[in-house]
Amino acid sequence: MTGIEADAALVGDRVGSFRFSVDGERWEWSDEVARMHGYEPGSVVPTTELVLAHKHADDKPAVTALVDNMIRHGQPFSSRHRIIDTQGRVRVVVVVGSRRFDEAGEVIGTSGFYIDITDSDENDVRHRVGQAAKSIAADRAVIERARGILMYVYQFSAADALSALKWRSQETGLSLREFCERFAREVVAANMIPDHVRREVDRVLLGVHGP
Hints:
Elements: H1 8-11, E1 15-21, E2 26-29, H2 31-36, H3 48-53, H4 60-73, E3 77-84, E4 90-101, E5 107-116, H5 122-154, H6 158-172, H7 176-190, H8 195-207
Antiparallel strand pairs: 1-2, 1-5, 3-4, 4-5
Helix pairs in contact: 5-6, 5-7, 6-7
EC number: 2.7.13.3
GO molecular function: protein histidine kinase activity; RNA binding
Pfam family, one: ANTAR
């Protein structure tokens, strides 16, 4: 999945990411989230109906209201509830979602993570939520740095820069985070900005004033 990805070395298979796009009500699951629901990665295309179908009957009304609010209004949310996988096993999950915006600041969807806490105690739950949030924040920072480089060099829009990074990450077989990290590191190491450009940036940086 070319979205915000959990650091597998840090949180393992019990944490995974998801993305929802308002346009077309499109969902994306990381491999970990697919497995939580009992599917092999890539074997199913998640939909709103499928997401809700896996909710435990006692939790489904509340979760349905959260999902509906997310779809209609792009609201962030958090929920602790039960899902039932394809084998009929009940899993307890924490799901946290935050809003995604386009270049104009309009809400275009939601992204976030699932944490399987079926066999966890409260301290472990808090630890895993904190670690997942830190990992996702780190992913965002790395991706934004690489995107900023492309926007500056090629005068790309934010969306075009992200598309280019996704394309290259898929070609290389690297996750989006890993590709962006390597790309930005090598650009910095190559010291590609000439002195005259640095001087002009210095001039503009110091010349911008408030009202």
